[in-house]
Amino acid sequence: MAEPQPATTGSTAAPGRRSPLRPSRSTVVLMYHGFCTTRRADDPENLFVEVARLEEQLTWLLAHGWEALDLDGYRDVRAGRRSGHRTVLVTIDDGFDSVADLAAPVLHRLGVPAVLFVPSGLVGATATWLPEPASSPLLQPERLRGLPALGVEIGLHGRDHRDLRGIDPDELHRQTALARAELADFLGAPAARCVRSFAYPYGAHDRAARDAVAAAGFLEAFSVFDDAGPMAVSRVDVNATDTLRSFRVKLMPQYRRAWRALESAPALRRLVHKVSTRTPNRTPDGPPEAAPTAVPS
């Protein structure tokens, strides 16, 4: 398949020809996790993106007329105060050390803001929810406090990375409102100013979880693939297997529409996601072969 080309504002398709693929008219919200300098062999979920790939992706966006938004700019788009055409919001989940070590310097140098979601009860601990890479270190409080100066806003990712679906109201309160206050204490500023957004662990949410997040005072909340209004906004997952070509495909509205079309077939959607993020095979004499990417047909 020919590599998709950037859309030109105002262009029209010739008679009898299909319109070219276009970037979404709403802000594309990207989701990253960890970062590395060379591809990790102990990362079966492909969560750790090589920092050179991150820089390549962001540089391509900026060179092709995309504007990277902070949370306030994103909220302006959501409220209709500005166009979302060719705008992107970078989000990062979990709070691995590699965010400060590798990603933040690149983001700062390129002038790209981001929102980092961290579990308040695991600040300075390890990512025990991952079987591999086991016990990956998470950022210490002092390192979190330094990130806003580099353009990285801090949001909440629950308290202990627990799935929020089906839990009782007291536990939901602990995972949202109390966790928000706890993270604000780490950051040393009022929660309303420094912890304004939320990302669901595993992207999982139900009505009770969304209501608890709203009651805790968050302005926006993010899921992974499942949209449910401003308290559950879907994101485009960027993983270690993405080439620049597959990254560009993921920017297109067809990609997100394909996931929404699979909503009635959750087992199939999980399978497609697993295939699109599987660890690539290694050739005997060269680098890993690219894993297949889930793209709209």
Verbal overview:
The model is unreliable at 1-24 and 277-297 (pLDDT under 50). Helix 1 runs parallel beside helix 3 (97-110) and helix 5 packs across helix 7. The protein has a single domain, classed as TIM Barrel (Alpha-Beta Barrel), CATH 3.20.20. The chain has ten helices and twelve strands. With 297 residues, it is α/β, with parallel strands linked by helices.
Largest sheet: 6 strands, parallel
Order of helices and strands: EEEHEHEHEEEHEHHEHEEHHH
Number of helices: 10
Secondary-structure-derived class: alpha/beta
List the defining traits of the structure above.
disordered C terminus, two-stranded parallel sheet, six-stranded parallel β-sheet, alpha/beta, 297 residues, TIM Barrel, 14% strand
Provide a short characterization of the protein structure.
This protein has 10 helices and 12 strands. It has 297 residues and is of the alpha/beta class.
Secondary-structure topology with pairs:
Elements: E1 28-32, E2 34-36, E3 48-50, H1 51-63, E4 67-68, H2 71-78, E5 87-93, H3 97-110, E6 114-118, E7 126-127, E8 136-137, H4 141-146, E9 152-156, H5 169-187, H6 191-194, E10 197-199, H7 207-215, E11 220-222, E12 236-237, H8 244-250, H9 253-261, H10 266-276
Parallel strand pairs: 1-5, 1-12, 2-3, 4-5, 5-6, 6-9, 10-11
Antiparallel strand pairs: 7-8
Helix pairs in contact: 1-3, 5-7
